[in-house]
Write a structure and sequence with these properties.
Elements lengths: L13 H13 L9 E7 L7 H21 L3 E7 L15 H5 L19 H15 L5 E4 H6 L4 H9 L1 H8 L5 H6 L3 E3 L12 E5 L4 E5 L5 E5 L5 E3 L1 H12 L3 E2 L1 E2 L3 H13 L9 E2 L2 E2 L16 H7 L2 H9 L6 E2 L5 H14 L6 H4 L2 H5 L13 H11 L4 H11 L9 H18 L10 H15 L7 H12 L7 H13 L7 H8 L1 H12 L9 H8 L1
Parallel strand pairs: 1-2, 1-9, 2-3, 10-11, 12-13
Antiparallel strand pairs: 4-8, 5-6, 6-7
Helix pairs in contact: 1-2, 6-9, 7-10, 9-10, 12-13, 16-18, 17-24, 19-20, 19-23, 20-22, 22-23
Length: 538
């Protein structure tokens, strides 16, 4: 890494662009606290999701680039807003009737419906930490409840009280008439019920550090704003946290653009400095609609990891963070192959090119070394034409095509074989639709059989591909693109597919000839497994 430091100022990868902007923001010297603080936020009313992963992954990439460029110590806080009141009962948890009795109470005061932790907030915080730990993120967990109750925020909360009108005036123009009449940045925690209240504040005592609010029964109650007796409304809370902790960098989704702007104003009112950061675009589902936790559309982390390695998900998060992207199952194969291509290129690159390669950011500067034996797409097509979910069958073909590759010597490839089989079973197999060849295609396929059989033993994939191209140039075929699509539809039962020379070389010339003959004879290509089993047993 030391050799690459000299290239960091010239790297155009977006984490380095962000790191340079952060250096400019802090003035090229450590803050008074002695470190630069990165923060990510988490709302523990639900379980960690793919947006949580994306924010921590992207922030970690910027942090790593910043550390290389500056040498200034850094910390990353994963902050849980677990003092929020439970607004509604989630649909995906047990004991919902029990939870309904605790609506309005801080999440850390709501019993755990799973019965494993002291509260619902503690349960989800534990899930968050286990989630982040499973990906190897370096972070420090912070709980809003603990910070409020321990007095960490007390000086800044008193400042909010001192500048109450100025803070309130930032928010009031964004509210409707009814809400504007009763708005207060402070949400008192009711001493009687323990609920977080959106109550009207009728008096303030700056010297004593207290507010008087109208309780739900109409009585007036005086409480301190410190010590966890109150929490702040969302935008004021974010600004207070930036100020109290000295947050230097925090990202936010596009849907929070206005919140970032308003919280920045409040942060300045409190005497703080809003952090640097950037607004990232939101994910879209398969229909191009924004992904919503309440709708349940889109793709969850565990669903992605069922079909592909976590590094491919990191690549998806790395790519074009300011561009809205479809996040659905069909993006997985392409993303995996892009990851493999970047991994293959890395050892061949030098200097700034390595720093601009996504795998440098995905693997903290130390990507693994392994020859790119086969793409994920090829493995999918191999599983598809072999009609198998048996890993040993696929390794039979792989070992013949790449004799040096074994599960032990190529662990990345070995994992991909397992992922490809799962993806094939769930997505490819149910959608396979074979068609009969036209008269022109039938003649071309017969010609291709003859050319493949005429190849010398051990012919390489380029020689095979040349024969496929040669047949595709026949005048009765419209063009090469249509020829390849015909091969995919007739032989693989799908509209898209691999480079056929590579596929035939992998599957074997003899097996490929047999596959084409079955198509010409009108035999089902998705039910006959005997040939594959015999091949694997040879």
């Amino acid at each position: 890494m030391s050799d690459l430091r000299t290239h960091a100022p010239h790297a155009n990868a977006w984490p380095f662009t962000e790191a340079r902007a952060l250096l400019k923001h802090i003035g090229d010297r450590p803050p008074e606290k002695g470190y630069v603080l990165f923060e990510t936020g988490y709302g523990p009313s639900g379980l960690p999701h793919i947006g949580t992963f994306g924010e921590v992954a992207r922030t970690s990439m910027v942090r790593r680039a910043f550390s290389m460029m500056s040498g200034i110590p850094t910390r990353l806080f994963a902050f849980s807003d677990d003092m929020d009141g439970l607004r509604k009962v989630p649909d995906n948890v047990p004991n919902q009737e029990m939870l309904a009795r605790y609506l309005g109470k801080p999440l850390t005061a709501v019993p755990d419906p799973f019965g494993t932790h002291e509260s619902f907030g503690h349960h989800n915080n534990a899930r968050l930490k286990a989630f982040l730990d499973s990906f190897g993120f370096e972070y420090e967990f912070k709980s809003a409840t603990e910070c409020y109750r321990a007095g960490l925020f007390d000086p800044t909360l008193r400042r909010v009280l001192e500048r109450y009108d100025a803070v309130t005036n930032v928010i009031l123009p964004t509210l409707g008439p009814e809400r504007r009449a009763t708005y207060s940045p402070f949400l008192p925690v009711c001493p009687k019920t323990g609920r977080v209240l959106q109550a009207q504040v009728v008096a303030r005592d700056v010297a004593a550090g207290t507010i008087v609010y109208v309780d739900e029964d109409g009585s007036k109650v005086e409480v301190p704003v410190t010590g966890g007796h109150c929490k702040l409304q969302w935008k004021a809370d974010w600004a207070m946290r930036w100020t109290a902790l000295g947050v230097d960098y925090e990202m936010a989704g596009k849907d929070l653009t206005d919140s970032v702007h308003l919280s920045g104003k409040i942060c300045r009112i409190l005497g703080g400095r809003p952090p640097a950061g950037f607004i990232y675009e939101l994910f879209l589902d398969d229909k191009g609609e924004k992904i919503s936790k309440s709708k349940g559309n889109g793709l969850a982390v565990d669903e992605w990891l069922r079909y592909a390695p976590p590094e491919s998900l990191s690549l998806f998060m790395y790519q074009k963070p300011k561009t809205a992207k479809r996040l659905y199952f069909d993006v997985i194969p392409r993303t995996v192959d892009e990851y493999l291509a970047h991994l293959e290129q890395f050892p061949k690159q030098e200097g700034v090119k390595q720093l601009e390669n996504p795998v440098w950011h995905i693997h903290a500067g130390h990507p693994p070394r392994e020859d790119a034996h086969l793409t994920y797409s090829i493995l999918l097509n191999l599983a598809s034409v072999s009609h198998t979910e048996d890993k040993a069958v696929l390794w039979h073909f792989i070992s013949r095509y790449r004799p040096s590759a074994t599960p032990a010597s190529a662990p990345i490839l070995d994992r991909l074989v397992e992922y490809a089989i799962t993806y094939y079973r769930d997505f490819v197999k149910p959608t396979k639709r074979f068609r009969e060849p036209t008269a022109a295609e039938r003649s071309a396929l017969a010609d291709l059989v003859g050319k493949l059989e005429a190849l010398p033993p051990g012919a390489d994939l380029e020689a095979i591909q040349n024969q496929v191209y040669e047949v595709g140039k026949r005048p009765e075929l419209s063009d090469l693109r249509s020829w390849f699509q015909a091969l995919y539809e007739i032989l693989l039962g799908q509209s898209q597919g691999p480079r056929m020379g590579t596929f035939f070389a992998l599957y074997g010339v003899g097996e490929s000839v047999a596959l084409i003959r079955r198509a010409l004879d009108g035999k089902p290509l998705d039910t006959d497994k005997n040939d594959v089993r015999k091949s694997a047993g040879r």
